[in-house]
Design brief:
Length: 215
């Protein structure tokens, strides 16, 4: 009986030690800047952005002045864009501006933020606030950087955002009409009538057939 009890204690102790050892192996700390940098690159290569984000936080806290951090911020921003995780991409771009922004780099980063918003707008019938915020951001950008090399690209985005906003207003107005909400429908009808896009010959964006029932 005493032997069985001791065996049980041994197995339990071994299990706890093994568990603790595994936990420590998963928690990286006190790495050199080179090691952190390579670890984050490996995380991205393995498509494990959650680990990459956590390792960036540890890296930044352990080596606050490392020159690698500037590169890592841009690498992580681009990695999140590739995975269509645009909020996280914008977070890293904001961090870059805050820590390393110069007059020239801020122009580029602000452009990347607008492009991330544009790329994230995959469904034409949703997120009107994103559309309106992006229109305001583009107008502000063109005002601050009138000679920007990104003007042609931004003006194309601006036209598409304005078209999206126009057709969203049309759909909202039609919905209020169906619901007999005359006052609300009138407000949106005025927006449509006063829009510079009201008289242009354009085609409404079409959703794939499988998305139509959800819109």
């Amino acid at each position: 009986m005493r032997i069985k009890f001791k065996s049980a204690i041994f197995v339990l102790s071994l299990t706890l030690l093994t568990g603790c050892g595994a936990k420590k192996d998963n928690e990286l700390y006190n790495l050199t800047p080179d090691q952190w940098y390579n670890q984050i690159l490996n995380d991205i290569k393995d498509a494990d952005l959650e680990s990459a984000d956590k390792h960036y936080i540890s890296f930044a806290s352990e080596h606050i002045a490392s020159p690698y951090l500037e590169q890592v911020l841009m690498i992580l921003a681009n990695a999140h864009v590739d995975e269509e995780e645009y909020k996280m991409a914008n977070f890293y771009l904001d961090e870059y501006i805050k820590k390393y922004g110069t007059k020239k780099s801020i122009e580029y980063i602000q452009y990347l933020k607008i492009k991330a918003n544009f790329d994230s707008f995959s469904k034409p019938n949703r997120n009107q606030k994103l559309v309106q915020d992006s229109i305001a951001q583009i107008n502000e950008f063109l005002k601050n950087y009138p000679n920007t090399q990104y003007r042609a690209l931004l003006e194309t985005m601006l036209i598409k955002f304005r078209l999206a906003d126009y057709y969203l207003n049309v759909e909202i107005q039609e919905l209020y009409n169906k619901l007999d909400r005359e006052d609300s429908a009138k407000i949106y009808q005025e927006k449509i009538d006063n829009s510079p896009l009201n008289d242009i010959n354009s085609t409404k964006a079409k959703l794939p057939w499988y998305m139509t029932p959800f819109e």
